[in-house]
Specification:
about 150 residues, Thiol Ester Dehydrase, Chain A, alpha+beta
Length: about 150
Amino acid sequence: MSDRELNALDIRDILKCLPHRYPFLMIDKIIEIDGIESGIGIKNITYNEPIFTGHFPQEPIFPGVLIIEGMAQTAGAMVVAAQREAGEEHMVYLLTVDKAKFRKPSHPGDVIEYHVRKINLRRNVGRYEAKAMVNGVLIAEAEIGAMIVQDV
């Protein structure tokens, strides 16, 4: 990342923050970011993703577990980017998923917005409220717990 103000992350920035790669990178960009406080991650769902060859090929539905992963990756990228801006290198590991609810399915052609907001951060454990939205409609929600560790 450059000297610009940190208010969004493009795919190049995300690849610097997260170890995930295709086909397991579940966010394409973060369009709004407020340090470790909140952010909105974007995932463009396309039919050519490998998951759809086996996940209901006649009625392709993006798996709920991957929606949760997208929420966690959004939170992780926010935290790592903020730490990098402060001159530190960290890694984020998923610890818990609580209060997960799936309200509506997501299909190819959808753009999922992951709205993530910090609930609290104590030492190296953060807790985040996450909502997945498509066209302004809530499709899933959960609370994500993550451990932030110094990258060696």
